[in-house]
Design a protein that fits this description.
single chain; 742 residues; alpha/beta; 7-stranded mixed beta sheet; 28 helices; 25 strands
Amino acid sequence: MKDLLLITPPFTQLNTPYPATAYIKGFLNTKHISSYQMDLGIEVILELFSKEGIQKVFSNVFDLKVTSENSQRIFAMREEYIKTIDQVVLFLQNQNPTLARQICSMNFLPEASRFNQLDDMEFAFGNMGLQDKAKHLATLYLEDISDFIVENIDLDFGFSRYAERIGQSANSFDELYSKLNNQETFTDDFTLKILKEKIDLIQPKMVCFSVPFPGNLYAAFRCAQFIKANYPNLKVVMGGGFPNTELRELKDQRVFEFFDYITLDDGELPLELVYQSVVNSPPLEGCQNSKNFDGVVYEFKRTFILENQIVVYKNNTSKSDYKQAFVGTPDYSDLLLDKYISVIEIANPMHSLWSDGRWNKLTMAHGCYWGKCTFCDISLDYIKIYEPISAKILVDRMEELIEQTGESGFHFVDEAAPPALMREVALEILRRNLVVTWWTNIRFEKSFSRDLCFLLKISGCVAVSGGLEVASDRLLKLIDKGVSVEQVAKVTRNFTEAGIMVHSYLMYGFPTQTEQETIDSLEMVRQLFEMGIIQSGFWHQFALTAHSPIGKDPAEFGVEPIMNEILFAHNDIEFTDKTGIDHSQFSFGLKKSLLNYMHGINFDLPLKNWFDFKIPKTTIDPDYIHDCLLEEESFIFKGNSKLVFLDKNAQVENFIKTKKGNSYDFTRLTFHLKTNIVKLELESNKAKWLMKIFAENSSENPKKLTLQRLKTQFEENFEDFELFWFSKPLQQLKENGVILSL
């Protein structure tokens, strides 16, 4: 028996758990509140995509005359799917690696329409290893089965979402309520069977659903409905990203036929207070939810309840939210960590990070340190309240998670990780001699210098993702992004040269954006990919949200919102743009061109070829990005730069150098780096001094020497530090990352 059952409803990712319940469980541990967590999504997928599950899929198809030729082909090969499914899933769980050779033989998996794209993709396999190619083919195989389910059995099914359309800014609860009062779906049968087994096993006092996305909403309500019908005394709570952004103006009392409490924003304190109200002094039958049987008023933090048949927002506690240093380390226990499925949807190494491999998820800083972008929900606490965590605590948590999960891969799920904190985390990782792999979301700040990117790389950073958005300097200013296209180009070059992959979030249809600017943005993106300084990207059409600066002052940005009465969800707002442009017409061409660029082909194809309508010619110079990168960094002395000396084990060889009849003591220093050897010659007294500096200021030393302090120390013994610092031998060390200036 546990106090709380924490559930992520179907569906999120296949390859790794969504971290919300792990974060909450880690916090509950600090309060000695027992809990059990489950990712209901992956458990449903594993039952559905099994021999028994696939047999149920095919046995549920009654009238194939109304289905497509593709479905008829899949149905005809049903015995092959039933035969192979268990082995393919084991392979995608990294438990059956030898199957890769069978899969890649191209005569093992049954192939339907998803495999048609292989005719255009064969070139990409040259960059993929055998295992990755097999994962990609197995992913297509699963997608074929998914297509069959959607077409013939359950229209709302999707691997990472379920009935998403119903949850997307449903101002009214009517459609969802109607669907919940209809017959349970094929997928529901799997979901509710597993849910019942888990409740009977755990016997919780309260069930908590973390609902991150619209694609989890229907399943959360269906599960809550099942609990209310079968376990009427069990209290049910909803929190997570969806209510945080969408349900802030909730008024429809029918929602509380399913849930007793809905909490907003950081969940730790709200859930603790709800738990105290439910478990420590439960109300009697018929009592109001906000009082116990003695009439004592419960304290709540940012919580909706139903009181006298009216939806009431309770925020009557004087307690403050917990600081990030005191919320505990995420706890991934209970989750089926070895059962997640790694898939590769697109043959692109950067793009596959989201779906391939299991990542421990952590956060460097709560909120966003920039907090100005006009399209972003910067008025909400999860972005507005910025609170970084110390590097020491972060790396402590990394070590705890490595011990707990056996995995040393980390995805920092920040809104935008702060460069200074990333630097300190990297140094702490090096100081502890940890071997980890990590990636995160960033802003393309000028702070990401060549040296900082190199430091991040050697600490284990393999990739970053960040918003280039509209790739237009005029629109970037309107967004208040704080970057320019030129700056983005330089920063992405620094990351790429350090060996860190870059994914860029791209946007079209921003208010006042012209057709010319859309095409010019595409040209910028084409050049960035052609230069090899961005490896992956994704185009999103601009969405107007209620909690963004544009949503709060739409007239300022030339848009007119189409407002409906809000009783349920409210975030995405329909609008008209004063330009009158139908931006959606660009969607297919932008995404198709990007897919080609991500695979390194068709850069020379005229932009007009991507669209089936007339577009303006680009006004961007074909060498614009190339020319942005030509500017060489000047030799500037930055006294407050912190220095990192990464190699203290140079081989030292003294020798005599004769010049114009005079003999001089010289020293040859040889640095054996991982991929090359750096040799340089210095006057012996300067080489000895430099080696002493290396020994005293290694990466293990938490105190970092500044360039000004180094200059002072140098000039206590020698003259003209700048001449020494910018000399060819020292430049060799800096260019090869032996000395970093941060």
